[in-house]
Amino acid sequence: MILKKEFEPVREWADEKGIFDKGDSKTQYIKLQEEAGELAKAILNDDKPEIIDALGDCTIVLVNLAKLCGYNLEDCVNDAYNVIAKRTGKMENGTFIKDK
Length: 100
Prior knowledge:
The chain is mainly alpha-helical.
């Protein structure tokens, strides 16, 4: 379970930078895609420091995107986990496939 205020320092930083006042969900989503591309490149290159950096960057953008959409990322993660925790399924080719 993710604590309710786990990412509060990220939100404080983003607020200080004006992301919540001047940003919007569309631009943050584009930023997320950019960071996801960097993550993909790092994974393909097996560049562990860049993987760590890109995962962190994606998380920060998700925190900001959630707030701009009126949500708290911790709540989103907890809600999603409560759904997937009960799922059954199996691994196929390195991916978990849920039962229907």
